[in-house]
Amino acid sequence: MKYADGFVVPIPTKNIAAYKRLARQSCKIWLQYGALEYFECVGEDMNIPMGIPFPRLAKIKRGETVVFAWIVYKSRKHRDAVNAKVMKDPRILNMMQGKKMPFDMKRITYGGFKVLVEG
Fold first, then answer.
1. Are 67 and 9 a contacting pair, CB within 8 Å?
2. Domain architecture of the chain: domains with CATH
3. Sheet holding 64-73: strands in order across?
4. How many CA within 13 A on the CB side of residue 37?
5. What is the pLDDT of residue 69?
6. Three-class secondary structure of residue 102 per DSSP
7. Among 11-15, 33-37, 82-86, 90-94, which is the least confidently predicted range?
8. Which are the contacts of 111, defined by CB distance < 8 A and separation ≥ 6?
9. pTM (2 decimals)?
């Protein structure tokens, strides 16, 4: 059964280009270590009439939008193995140390999900 890591990231709209560069590099690294798919999507149609809109859920501030991202794996065990390798990669360590991230790391929402339906 497939497994996915999911993320919701509030981000200042002025930082989207910097985030995209970071996301492209991250995508290469995760896929190199065996992730099946990698997606980073920036909010566009956020004014919806049903449920809780992502901006409200993520408590965005003026001048921010939301990134919705997910990474797909073969299983939770596979996810754990891939992420262990990713977190030791010097490129990831370099991203996380010393550089100012284009978003507030404390505001990320993250979780692991067992795939329920796939089409």
1. yes
2. 3-114 (3.30.70.100)
3. 37-42, 64-73, 3-12, 109-114
4. 10
5. 98
6. coil
7. 90-94
8. 5, 6
9. 0.93
